[in-house]
Structure formats: C-alpha cells, structure tokens
Design goal:
Layout lengths: L4 E8 L4 H18 L8 E2 L5 E2 L7 E6 L1 H14 L3 E5 L8 H9 L8 E9 H7 L4 E2 L2
Parallel strand pairs: 1-4
Antiparallel strand pairs: 1-6, 2-3, 4-7, 5-6
Protein name: DUF2000 domain-containing protein
InterPro entries: DUF2000, Pep_tRNA_hydro_II_dom_sf
Organism: Phytoactinopolyspora halophila
Amino acid sequence: MRFDTKIAVLLRDDLELWQRLNATAFLASGVCSATPELVGDPYEDADGTAYLPMFGQPVLVFVGDGRTLSSAHGRALRRGLRMAVFTSDLFSTGNDRDNRAAVKAVSRDRLDLVGLALHGPKNGVDKILKGATLHP
C-alpha cells in the first residue's frame, strides 16, 4: 500500500541506543496526538484478546548529524509543518511539566535538538529531511 503522506522521525546520529529509542517513542507520540486520524483500528488476536491500535502507516526513522537536524528543523518551520521536538535536556527530566519547561527556557535557534518528528505530504517531508539517511 502506498501513502501520500509520511511519518518521519529524525534523530541525531551521536545518541546512545537507549536515547534513540526513548526519543523515538516520545516523538512518535507527538505526531499521534496532533493527528489522531493516523491511528488505525484496534488489534485482536485469534483468541479475542484486544490490543491497542497503532499508526495505520509506517513510521520511518532517519539519522543525521546536528547540522542536518538543525536544517530540517528550519525547513519544517519555513514550510509551516508542525513537528515534535526532543532536546538533549529532556534526557535529564522526569515528567512532562519539566520537559515543556526545558524547551520553553531556550530560544528556537538555540535548542540542542536531538530529534524531531513530523507528518506531512510525502514529497514535502522528503525535502525537509534532505541530507538524512534511514536509520540502520
């Protein structure tokens, strides 16, 4: 099945594995909250056990260096595409209130971005992610 839109997560390439996984989970939740229609129907196994629904299309995870991440952030802003951001400060906070305060305390051009996630038209997302590569 082909999709006209793309869900993408872009991570800075110097993160430890646990940081990549943690940031990806948080960033994907941002896309989900902003676009609930991306969520499919609940799952059920052959025994009738119900499971939570998930995205109805793939989430592609990309990596790039800090410059690639900063450039993607700027391109997304110029295109008016909403995104979720994850900064290095969020690895040391323990709750949503402190996470939001950590982002709020830093101007947009000084954020120490380690990841971002977005959803939008496939070709637009591809242009925003220029220079990034699929996560190995």
